[in-house]
């Protein structure tokens, strides 16, 4: 009621004081009165979100509580998108009613008083977070005017007249810059000085990092607005977006070492959000080589969702070093091992001595993508799976380049052979499937029966078994080297070897019953196929458990 009463009294006084003014002073003062009358009260001690329409000003006002003569106050305005214009106007106490006297002298005096009752004490244009601090009087009213001339947008405004009980926004250190202390091909290491708020409220404060390829952001709400404008749906604040939250299809959540990351796939590249608690150093992983990234650190109050932005920085990752080129020779097998963290690329080169060339790849571990070019033009590119052949036709002395790239961080390996098309094949003729099948109904406490497909070519098959625990299945299957042969197995694991073929592929199936097993025990079975060259091909491992009771 105090605000409303003061508003009405001020309007009444202003109306009385301008009745006898000249026409020009009436228009000027009435315009100011109109602006004041059509404004809203700005809440004290609360962050207010204000939506602005293009070229339409919006006005808010505030007064002090009754009984306070002079008091400090501060106003913080945070643009959440485009630059805006905003200003603070001071409305002083209006003069009293006119008294009879010299008419001309009175007119001049009233005109001067009317124009002096309103003054602009602060004005700003831009998209930075700005704070104005001043002293307010109970006999004065303050009008805040906001204008966006570029497009519709929104801002946040925080007014407080209580500067002794703490701050809504976390404090920034004296030097709010982010230092780049290390740059690699795929990583950038950052460090920044601690916020004083972290030392006082460690449990409710955390640092959040935003990484993108476009530009720096001067506030957290500006960053969120940019992400939303790209078609992304985000929660109100970054702090909340890292709470349990239903992610959009274009978002990926990663939890590692108590750090929660969200990667947003947007048209202009990735936007990564990482909150790392109160640590003030961080190494950003999995970046692209030779790419410029922009880094912004925000200190976030988890209780109020208020945040403050450090001064953003940028860095360009190092160029990927040229991979060493290895020459391929006719019929020679090369075993390539790639470290997913250090060496992700490996290049091979082959000069054709025949028109038809045959490339063979056997994936041993991990995930690898192969890219083959002939005289600089791509002829094949795909992810490898198991055993893969490429038969290519070109000209004599054509130069083939083979680039192998690991697609995961763990180690990957592959065997590669290049040879003329008529060269003796490296690997045996393969069946339609390399899966091993087990028959549940034929399982007993002491035996299991398995089957696998053969070919029209007489070949040697060796069966091996290994006793494992149930919690070891995933690890055994993931770590298995599909290129290793029986020489890597313990002799006690060998079950048998047999020769088998059938000219009719429909009947090229063989079964084997493995006996002498323990009841209720899990076994891992492997079958190795040997061709004329002696290089084995390993079937997909099969885990089977014997019956516990018979």
Domain count: the total is 4
Low-pLDDT segments, ≥5 res:
1-35, 95-115, 233-260
What overall form do the CA principal axes indicate? elongated
Which percent range describes the beta-strand content? Answer: 35-45%
Name the CATH class of the largest domain: Mainly Beta
Number of strands: 36
- The appropriate CATH architecture of the largest domain is Sandwich
* Contiguous helical run count: 7
Mean pLDDT: 79
CATH topology of the largest domain: Immunoglobulin-like
Largest sheet: 7 strands, antiparallel
State the fourth-level CATH superfamily of the largest domain: Immunoglobulins
| Helix percentage range | 10-25%
Instruction: Using the CA coordinates, give the radius of gyration.
Output: 38 Å
The chain-level structural class is mainly beta
Distance between the termini: 88 Å
Keywords: Glycoprotein, Neurogenesis, Repeat, Secreted, Signal
Pfam family, one: NDNF_N
Organism: Irena cyanogastra
Domain Fibronectin type-III: 170-307, 428-536
What would a concise description of this structure say?
By secondary structure, this protein is mainly beta. Helix content is 13%, strand content 43%.
């Amino acid at each position: 009621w105090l605000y409303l009463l003061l508003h009405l009294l001020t309007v009444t006084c202003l109306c009385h004081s301008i009745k006898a003014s000249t026409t020009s002073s009436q228009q000027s003062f009435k315009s100011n009165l109109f602006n004041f009358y059509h404004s809203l009260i700005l809440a004290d001690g609360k962050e207010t979100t204000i939506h602005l329409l293009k070229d339409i000003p919006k006005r808010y006002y505030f007064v002090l509580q009754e009984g306070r003569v002079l008091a400090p106050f501060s106003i913080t305005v945070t643009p959440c998108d485009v630059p805006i214009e905003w200003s603070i106007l001071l409305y002083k106490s209006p003069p009293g009613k006119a008294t009879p006297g010299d008419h001309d002298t009175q007119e001049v005096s009233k005109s001067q008083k009317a124009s002096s009752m309103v003054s602009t004490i602060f004005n700003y244009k831009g998209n930075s977070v700005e704070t104005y601090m001043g002293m307010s009087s109970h006999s004065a009213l303050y009008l805040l005017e906001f204008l966006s001339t570029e497009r519709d947008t929104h801002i946040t405004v925080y007014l407080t007249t209580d500067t002794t009980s703490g701050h809504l926004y976390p404090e920034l250190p004296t030097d709010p810059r982010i230092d780049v202390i290390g740059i690699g091909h795929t990583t950038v290491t950052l460090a920044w000085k601690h916020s004083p708020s972290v030392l006082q409220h460690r449990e409710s404060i955390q640092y959040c990092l935003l990484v993108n390829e476009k530009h720096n952001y001067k506030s957290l709400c500006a960053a969120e607005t940019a992400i939303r404008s790209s078609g992304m749906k985000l929660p109100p604040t970054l702090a909340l977006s890292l709470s349990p939250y239903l992610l959009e299809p274009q978002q990926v959540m990663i939890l590692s070492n108590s750090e929660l990351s969200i990667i947003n796939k947007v048209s202009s590249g990735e936007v990564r959000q990482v909150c790392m608690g109160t640590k003030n150093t961080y190494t950003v992983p999995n970046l692209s080589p030779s790419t410029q990234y922009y880094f912004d650190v925000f200190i976030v109050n988890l209780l109020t969702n208020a945040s403050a932005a450090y001064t953003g920085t940028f860095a360009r990752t190092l160029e990927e070093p040229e991979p060493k080129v290895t020459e391929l020779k006719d019929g020679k097998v090369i075993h390539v091992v790639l470290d997913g963290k250090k060496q992700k690329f490996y290049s091979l080169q082959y000069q054709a001595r025949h028109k038809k060339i045959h490339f063979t790849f056997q994936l041993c571990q991990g995930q690898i993508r192969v890219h083959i070019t002939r005289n600089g033009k791509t002829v094949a590119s795909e992810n490898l799976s198991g055993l893969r052949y490429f038969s290519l036709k070109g000209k004599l002395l054509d130069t083939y380049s083979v680039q192998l790239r690991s697609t995961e961080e763990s180690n990957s390996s592959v065997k590669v052979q290049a040879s003329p098309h008529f060269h003796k094949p490296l690997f045996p003729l393969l069946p339609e499937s390399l899966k091993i099948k087990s028959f549940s109904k034929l399982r007993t406490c002491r035996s299991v029966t398995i089957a696998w497909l053969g070919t029209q070519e007489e070949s040697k098959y060796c069966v091996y078994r290994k006793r494992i625990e149930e919690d070891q299945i995933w690890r055994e299957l993931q770590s298995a080297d599909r290129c290793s042969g029986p020489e890597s197995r313990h002799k006690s694991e060998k079950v048998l070897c047999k020769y088998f073929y059938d000219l009719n592929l429909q009947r090229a199936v063989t079964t084997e019953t493995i006996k002498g097993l323990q009841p209720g025990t899990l076994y891992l079975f492997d079958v190795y196929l040997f061709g004329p060259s002696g290089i084995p091909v390993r079937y997909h491992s099969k885990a089977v458990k014997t019956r516990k009771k018979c």
